[in-house]
Amino acid sequence: MKFLQRMRRFTIERKINQTYAKRLAAKGSRPEGVFWNSEANQINRFVTLLALIDTVTVDGPITGKAGYPVSIAEIGCGYGALYRYLQQRDAPDRWRYHGVDINPAMIAACRRNFPKEIAHFMVADRPQYEVDFSVFSGTYNLTPVEDCEQWLGYILQGLQSCWTLSRRGMVLNFLCAPEARISKKIYYTTRQDFITAATRHFGPTIAVPTKNVAGDFSFLISRDS
Ligand SMILES: C[S@@+](CC[C@H](N)C(=O)[O-])C[C@H]1O[C@@H](n2cnc3c(N)ncnc32)[C@H](O)[C@@H]1O
Protein backbone atom coordinates (compact mmCIF):
# COMPACT_ATOMS: atom_id res chain seq x y z
CA MET A 1 0.00 0.00 0.00
CA LYS A 2 1.33 3.44 -0.91
CA PHE A 3 2.36 5.85 1.84
CA LEU A 4 -0.49 8.28 1.14
CA GLN A 5 -3.07 5.50 1.14
CA ARG A 6 -1.70 4.24 4.45
CA MET A 7 -1.95 7.72 5.94
CA ARG A 8 -5.54 8.06 4.75
CA ARG A 9 -6.48 4.72 6.34
CA PHE A 10 -4.71 5.70 9.52
CA THR A 11 -6.65 8.98 9.75
CA ILE A 12 -9.98 7.26 9.06
CA GLU A 13 -9.34 4.55 11.64
CA ARG A 14 -8.23 7.02 14.29
CA LYS A 15 -11.60 8.77 13.97
CA ILE A 16 -13.52 5.46 14.02
CA ASN A 17 -11.62 4.37 17.12
CA GLN A 18 -12.36 7.62 18.95
CA THR A 19 -16.09 7.29 18.28
CA TYR A 20 -16.31 3.64 19.36
CA ALA A 21 -14.07 4.08 22.41
CA LYS A 22 -16.28 6.91 23.64
CA ARG A 23 -19.41 4.86 23.08
CA LEU A 24 -18.01 1.79 24.83
CA ALA A 25 -16.92 3.92 27.80
CA ALA A 26 -20.45 5.38 28.04
CA LYS A 27 -22.51 2.20 27.54
CA GLY A 28 -20.21 -0.72 28.39
CA SER A 29 -20.17 -4.26 26.98
CA ARG A 30 -23.74 -4.19 25.75
CA PRO A 31 -25.26 -3.95 22.25
CA GLU A 32 -25.64 -0.18 22.73
CA GLY A 33 -21.89 -0.02 23.44
CA VAL A 34 -21.26 -0.80 19.75
CA PHE A 35 -24.25 1.24 18.49
CA TRP A 36 -26.72 -1.65 18.05
CA ASN A 37 -30.20 -0.57 19.03
CA SER A 38 -31.18 -3.93 20.52
CA GLU A 39 -29.74 -7.29 21.45
CA ALA A 40 -32.30 -8.95 19.16
CA ASN A 41 -30.95 -7.04 16.16
CA GLN A 42 -27.38 -7.87 17.09
CA ILE A 43 -28.15 -11.58 17.48
CA ASN A 44 -30.28 -11.77 14.34
CA ARG A 45 -27.29 -10.46 12.41
CA PHE A 46 -25.12 -13.25 13.83
CA VAL A 47 -27.79 -15.86 13.13
CA THR A 48 -28.08 -14.81 9.49
CA LEU A 49 -24.31 -14.70 8.89
CA LEU A 50 -23.79 -18.14 10.46
CA ALA A 51 -26.71 -19.53 8.45
CA LEU A 52 -25.03 -18.29 5.26
CA ILE A 53 -21.86 -20.15 6.22
CA ASP A 54 -24.00 -23.23 6.85
CA THR A 55 -25.30 -23.11 3.29
CA VAL A 56 -21.82 -23.91 2.00
CA THR A 57 -20.41 -26.04 4.82
CA VAL A 58 -23.13 -28.25 6.26
CA ASP A 59 -22.76 -30.94 3.62
CA GLY A 60 -19.13 -30.21 2.83
CA PRO A 61 -15.96 -31.84 4.10
CA ILE A 62 -15.43 -29.45 7.02
CA THR A 63 -18.75 -29.80 8.84
CA GLY A 64 -18.99 -30.14 12.58
CA LYS A 65 -20.75 -33.44 11.88
CA ALA A 66 -17.58 -34.84 10.34
CA GLY A 67 -15.66 -33.71 13.41
CA TYR A 68 -13.95 -30.69 11.89
CA PRO A 69 -14.94 -27.31 13.31
CA VAL A 70 -15.34 -24.42 10.92
CA SER A 71 -12.73 -21.77 11.68
CA ILE A 72 -13.89 -18.18 11.66
CA ALA A 73 -12.22 -14.84 12.26
CA GLU A 74 -14.57 -12.08 13.29
CA ILE A 75 -13.26 -8.80 11.92
CA GLY A 76 -14.61 -6.01 14.12
CA CYS A 77 -15.46 -8.24 17.09
CA GLY A 78 -16.41 -5.36 19.41
CA TYR A 79 -16.64 -6.53 23.02
CA GLY A 80 -17.04 -10.20 22.00
CA ALA A 81 -20.81 -10.64 21.62
CA LEU A 82 -20.53 -13.19 18.78
CA TYR A 83 -18.09 -15.26 20.80
CA ARG A 84 -20.50 -15.21 23.75
CA TYR A 85 -23.36 -16.17 21.45
CA LEU A 86 -21.40 -19.16 20.09
CA GLN A 87 -20.52 -20.26 23.61
CA GLN A 88 -24.04 -19.95 24.96
CA ARG A 89 -26.44 -20.68 22.18
CA ASP A 90 -24.88 -22.28 19.14
CA ALA A 91 -22.90 -25.50 19.25
CA PRO A 92 -19.51 -24.18 20.45
CA ASP A 93 -17.67 -27.24 19.06
CA ARG A 94 -18.81 -26.44 15.58
CA TRP A 95 -16.77 -23.24 15.39
CA ARG A 96 -13.16 -22.34 16.03
CA TYR A 97 -13.24 -18.62 16.71
CA HIS A 98 -10.86 -15.74 16.93
CA GLY A 99 -11.81 -12.08 16.96
CA VAL A 100 -9.94 -8.98 15.90
CA ASP A 101 -10.78 -5.32 16.18
CA ILE A 102 -8.85 -2.18 15.30
CA ASN A 103 -9.93 -0.63 18.57
CA PRO A 104 -7.69 -1.44 21.56
CA ALA A 105 -10.55 -0.53 23.95
CA MET A 106 -12.74 -3.23 22.35
CA ILE A 107 -10.04 -5.87 22.63
CA ALA A 108 -9.40 -4.87 26.25
CA ALA A 109 -13.14 -5.35 26.88
CA CYS A 110 -13.05 -8.81 25.22
CA ARG A 111 -10.16 -9.80 27.42
CA ARG A 112 -12.00 -8.60 30.52
CA ASN A 113 -15.16 -10.41 29.41
CA PHE A 114 -13.30 -13.66 28.63
CA PRO A 115 -10.28 -13.70 30.95
CA LYS A 116 -9.57 -17.37 30.24
CA GLU A 117 -9.55 -16.85 26.48
CA ILE A 118 -7.55 -13.66 26.02
CA ALA A 119 -5.52 -15.22 23.20
CA HIS A 120 -8.71 -15.40 21.10
CA PHE A 121 -8.73 -11.60 20.75
CA MET A 122 -6.19 -9.32 19.05
CA VAL A 123 -5.94 -5.71 17.89
CA ALA A 124 -5.87 -6.15 14.09
CA ASP A 125 -7.87 -5.63 10.92
CA ARG A 126 -7.45 -9.11 9.44
CA PRO A 127 -7.37 -12.76 10.53
CA GLN A 128 -4.29 -13.75 12.50
CA TYR A 129 -4.03 -17.05 10.65
CA GLU A 130 -5.77 -18.67 7.73
CA VAL A 131 -9.42 -19.41 8.49
CA ASP A 132 -12.34 -20.91 6.61
CA PHE A 133 -14.39 -17.70 6.84
CA SER A 134 -13.95 -14.09 7.79
CA VAL A 135 -17.11 -12.72 9.42
CA PHE A 136 -18.03 -9.03 9.64
CA SER A 137 -21.11 -7.78 11.45
CA GLY A 138 -21.62 -4.05 11.32
CA THR A 139 -17.90 -3.50 10.84
CA TYR A 140 -18.27 -0.91 8.09
CA ASN A 141 -21.56 0.72 9.12
CA LEU A 142 -20.02 3.72 10.86
CA THR A 143 -17.92 5.97 8.68
CA PRO A 144 -16.15 9.28 9.24
CA VAL A 145 -15.97 10.00 5.49
CA GLU A 146 -18.73 11.61 3.45
CA ASP A 147 -18.18 10.12 0.05
CA CYS A 148 -19.73 6.70 -0.74
CA GLU A 149 -17.16 5.85 -3.43
CA GLN A 150 -14.28 6.63 -1.09
CA TRP A 151 -15.84 4.53 1.66
CA LEU A 152 -16.50 1.59 -0.67
CA GLY A 153 -12.84 1.79 -1.75
CA TYR A 154 -11.77 1.66 1.91
CA ILE A 155 -14.04 -1.34 2.52
CA LEU A 156 -12.81 -3.28 -0.52
CA GLN A 157 -9.20 -2.69 0.51
CA GLY A 158 -9.94 -4.05 3.99
CA LEU A 159 -11.82 -7.03 2.58
CA GLN A 160 -8.94 -7.79 0.22
CA SER A 161 -6.50 -8.26 3.08
CA CYS A 162 -8.97 -10.66 4.76
CA TRP A 163 -9.83 -12.50 1.54
CA THR A 164 -6.27 -13.75 1.12
CA LEU A 165 -6.56 -15.36 4.59
CA SER A 166 -10.07 -16.79 4.07
CA ARG A 167 -9.97 -20.29 2.56
CA ARG A 168 -13.67 -20.60 1.82
CA GLY A 169 -15.12 -17.13 1.87
CA MET A 170 -16.38 -14.13 3.76
CA VAL A 171 -19.77 -13.16 5.20
CA LEU A 172 -20.76 -9.62 6.07
CA ASN A 173 -23.73 -7.33 6.43
CA PHE A 174 -24.68 -3.83 5.40
CA LEU A 175 -27.58 -1.50 5.82
CA CYS A 176 -29.07 -1.12 2.35
CA ALA A 177 -31.16 1.58 0.71
CA PRO A 178 -32.47 2.23 -2.82
CA GLU A 179 -29.45 4.53 -3.41
CA ALA A 180 -26.04 4.38 -1.77
CA ARG A 181 -25.69 7.16 0.79
CA ILE A 182 -24.01 8.24 3.99
CA SER A 183 -26.36 9.76 6.47
CA LYS A 184 -25.46 10.79 10.04
CA LYS A 185 -22.15 8.93 9.66
CA ILE A 186 -23.90 5.66 8.73
CA TYR A 187 -23.16 4.01 5.40
CA TYR A 188 -25.95 2.53 3.28
CA THR A 189 -25.08 0.61 0.14
CA THR A 190 -27.48 -0.90 -2.35
CA ARG A 191 -27.77 -4.67 -2.43
CA GLN A 192 -26.87 -4.76 -6.12
CA ASP A 193 -23.95 -2.29 -5.88
CA PHE A 194 -22.28 -4.41 -3.26
CA ILE A 195 -22.94 -7.67 -5.11
CA THR A 196 -21.43 -6.16 -8.28
CA ALA A 197 -18.34 -4.79 -6.49
CA ALA A 198 -17.69 -7.94 -4.46
CA THR A 199 -18.23 -10.25 -7.44
CA ARG A 200 -15.78 -8.21 -9.50
CA HIS A 201 -13.11 -8.10 -6.76
CA PHE A 202 -13.49 -11.50 -5.15
CA GLY A 203 -16.00 -13.93 -6.62
CA PRO A 204 -19.62 -15.08 -6.63
CA THR A 205 -21.62 -13.10 -4.09
CA ILE A 206 -25.17 -13.59 -2.89
CA ALA A 207 -27.36 -11.52 -0.57
CA VAL A 208 -30.21 -12.40 1.77
CA PRO A 209 -32.27 -10.10 3.99
CA THR A 210 -30.95 -10.16 7.55
CA LYS A 211 -33.50 -11.96 9.72
CA ASN A 212 -35.92 -9.45 11.26
CA VAL A 213 -33.63 -6.45 10.75
CA ALA A 214 -35.35 -4.04 8.42
CA GLY A 215 -33.11 -2.66 5.67
CA ASP A 216 -30.15 -4.89 6.52
CA PHE A 217 -28.75 -7.46 4.09
CA SER A 218 -26.23 -10.22 4.67
CA PHE A 219 -23.78 -11.22 1.96
CA LEU A 220 -21.84 -14.40 1.28
CA ILE A 221 -18.75 -14.20 -0.92
CA SER A 222 -17.78 -17.79 -1.53
CA ARG A 223 -14.86 -19.55 -3.12
CA ASP A 224 -16.98 -22.73 -3.32
CA SER A 225 -19.57 -21.80 -5.89
C1 LIG B 1 -21.01 -2.06 15.02
S1 LIG B 1 -19.62 -2.68 15.88
C2 LIG B 1 -20.03 -4.41 15.84
C3 LIG B 1 -19.25 -5.25 16.82
C4 LIG B 1 -19.58 -6.75 16.76
N1 LIG B 1 -19.35 -7.27 15.44
C5 LIG B 1 -21.01 -6.97 17.19
O1 LIG B 1 -21.85 -7.22 16.32
O2 LIG B 1 -21.27 -6.90 18.38
C6 LIG B 1 -18.29 -2.56 14.69
C7 LIG B 1 -16.91 -2.92 15.24
O3 LIG B 1 -16.00 -2.97 14.14
C8 LIG B 1 -14.76 -2.40 14.52
N2 LIG B 1 -14.09 -1.96 13.29
C9 LIG B 1 -14.39 -0.89 12.52
N3 LIG B 1 -13.60 -0.85 11.43
C10 LIG B 1 -12.78 -1.94 11.52
C11 LIG B 1 -11.75 -2.47 10.69
N4 LIG B 1 -11.41 -1.87 9.54
N5 LIG B 1 -11.12 -3.60 11.07
C12 LIG B 1 -11.45 -4.21 12.24
N6 LIG B 1 -12.42 -3.75 13.07
C13 LIG B 1 -13.09 -2.64 12.71
C14 LIG B 1 -15.15 -1.29 15.48
O4 LIG B 1 -14.08 -0.92 16.32
C15 LIG B 1 -16.33 -1.93 16.22
O5 LIG B 1 -15.87 -2.61 17.37
Describe the fold and architecture.
With 225 residues, the protein is of the alpha/beta class. The protein has a domain at 3-142 and 161-169: Rossmann fold (3-Layer(aba) Sandwich). It contains six helices and nine strands, in the order ααβαβαββαβββαββ. The chain has helices spanning 3-27, 39-57, 81-88, 104-113, 148-163, 191-201, and strands at residues 70-75, 95-101, 121-123, 131-136, 166-176, 181-183, 186-189, 205-209, 216-222. Strands 1, 2, 3, 4, 5, 6, 7, 8 and 9 form a nine-stranded mixed β-sheet that branches. Helix 3 (81-88) links the parallel strand 1 (70-75) and strand 2. The protein is globular and about 40 Å long. Bound molecules: S-adenosylmethionine (SAM). S-adenosylmethionine is lined by residues 16, 20, 34-35, 42, 75-78, 81, 101-103, 106, 125, 137-139, 141, 158.
